Amino acid sequence: MELTHYFRGEIKNMSNRGMLIVLSGPSGVGKGTVRKAIFEQDDNKFHYSISMTTRAMRPGEVNGRDYFFVSKEQFENEIATGGMLEYARYVDNYYGTPLKYVNEMLDSGKDVFLEIEVNGAMQVREKCPDGLFIFLTPPDLMELRHRIIERGTDDLATIDKRMEKAVDEIEMMQNYDYAVVNDEVPSAVEKIKTIIRAERWRVKRFLPDYKKQLGDVLK
Ligand SMILES: Nc1nc2c(ncn2[C@@H]2O[C@H](COP(=O)(O)OP(=O)(O)O)[C@@H](O)[C@H]2O)c(=O)[nH]1
Ligand SMILES: Nc1ncnc2c1ncn2[C@@H]1O[C@H](COP(=O)(O)OP(=O)(O)O)[C@@H](O)[C@H]1O
């Protein structure tokens, strides 16, 4: 993906490409909760990329809203045909981001928001180095375990699997642009929104092709 620029026409000849925002962190930290809180705000302008997964639907979940729930064969077919921006196997299931939606949104100048686990986030970092990578981290491990138990979606064996993975995942924080502690949801939401606002003005998003423009100016 090309390096892109933001300004939405404020500077002429600039790309109008949207911004790719990646929220990641260990399972149970509150990624889904924080993401939903951001999207429930009236002024939300981000476009959420709905992931594809092979895991079973949980009570209350809706196909095409929470995830696209597919079979292992369908998912593997998407991988084989280049349909995924990234994917990961996580606790015995596949999770991934369909490429088409992300590309179409970014191309039309929309900001796309991904909420994904850390291995997938690192694949996106390779492909889209100009994305914004935010790591959501728990206040401490006891609190993380407590949240996973409270959520009540996993049996104890799965929780232990998730906790072991969580420690490895938290160590990947160093590969991110920002870390946000999810102590209270509203405060984490505000921090994330502040980071995104500030990042719009990041220099590398504004590298227009001045050499090319100079050719036109001197004509
Ligand atoms: N790599 C990747 N991870 C995803 C994607 N969608 C969701 N995940 C992550 O997969 C993990 C498990 O998700 P899920 O089974 O819904 O459980 P929960 O988010 O922990 O409630 C979480 O860390 C999600 O953020 C995706 O498209 N790609
Ligand atoms: N800031 C917070 N304080 C207390 N509990 C939280 C907070 N954020 C999320 N939770 C709770 O923690 C559990 C895990 O949150 P969830 O959003 O499912 O995590 P993730 O998507 O990262 O796996 C849920 O029960 C959620 O209500």
Break the fold down into its secondary structure elements and pairings.
Blueprint: E1 20-24, H1 31-40, E2 47-48, E3 52-53, E4 68-69, H2 72-80, E5 84-90, E6 93-98, H3 99-107, E7 112-115, H4 118-127, E8 132-137, H5 141-151, H6 156-170, E9 178-181, H7 185-199, H8 210-217
Helix pairs in contact: 1-7, 5-6
Guanosine-5'-diphosphate binds at residues 27-28, 31-32, 51, 55, 86, 88, 90, 95-97, 115-117, 120.
What does this structure look like?
- It is a single chain.
- The protein is α/β, with parallel strands linked by helices and 219 residues long.
- The chain has a domain of 139 residues: P-loop containing nucleotide triphosphate hydrolases (Rossmann fold, 3-Layer(aba) Sandwich).
- 40% of the residues lie in helices and 17% in strands.
- The strands form 2 sheets. A 5-stranded parallel beta sheet has the order 2-7-1-8-9, with helices on both faces. Strands 4-3-6-5 form a 4-stranded mixed beta sheet.
- The longest helix has 15 residues.
- It is globular.
- The site of adenosine-5'-diphosphate (ADP) has 13 residues, from helix 1 and helix 5.
- It is found in: Cytoplasm.
- It holds the Pfam family Guanylate_kin.
- Its EC number is 2.7.4.8.
